[in-house]
Amino acid sequence: MYMAEKQGKVGRPKKEIHDQETLNKIVEYGAQGLTIGQIAKCLGISRASLDRRRAEYEEIEEAIKKGEALGVSKIAQALMNNAIHENNVTAQIFYLKNRSENWADKVENSYTLDLGGILTDARQRIIDATAERLDATKERTLTHERTEKLEIPVRAYERSRDTEK
């Protein structure tokens, strides 16, 4: 530990991965369809280290993107070859569905919502419901008061009847 402190470096030595040989490997791995995590493993570093280096060295990010593009290009060429030269109907349909709007399976729906209007309507429903609850509470209170006023004379009458017996 003393030697590391003396030199000003702590931890494992940093593996340089932005040299041309490693960048070529990154392109190759990307062209094979490997994920970022798999590329990192092949390079002998963690995913987090590769992410830090991608941010630090633009050429690493470019190599990853170049590899992905190269892989897609190879697959597209193979698909086109199967569709045209091999008369592979499945490849032909796949190509048409993914490259032509007229053959696409998916239908895209577009909706426009007036959130201001929706919120205004909701606010008004809350106000109306609150007013209805207040009216119902007032009605219950009035009914209760009327019942109490009626009960007092009835009780007095019953008491007077009981005392007469």
Largest sheet: none
CA-CA gap between termini: 107 Å
- Structure annotation, total helices: 7
What's the helix-strand series?
Answer: HHHHHHH
Radius of gyration: 39 Å
Count of folded domains: 2
Low-confidence stretches: none
Indicate the proportion of strand residues.
Answer: under 5%
The level of helicity is: over 70%
- Compute the average pLDDT: 84
What does this protein structure show overall?
It is built from seven helices and no strands. The protein is mainly alpha-helical and about 160 residues long. It has two domains: about 100 residues, no CATH class; about 55 residues. The protein starts with a helix and ends with a helix. The mean pLDDT is about 85.
Short description:
The protein is mostly helical. Helices cover 75% and strands 0% of the residues. It has helices at residues 2-7, 20-31, 36-43, 47-56, 58-84, 89-99, 115-164.
Provide the descriptors you would attach to this structure in a database record.
165 residues; mainly alpha; 2 domains
Topology:
Layout: H1 2-7, H2 20-31, H3 36-43, H4 47-56, H5 58-84, H6 89-99, H7 115-164
Helix pairs in contact: 2-3, 2-5, 4-5, 5-6
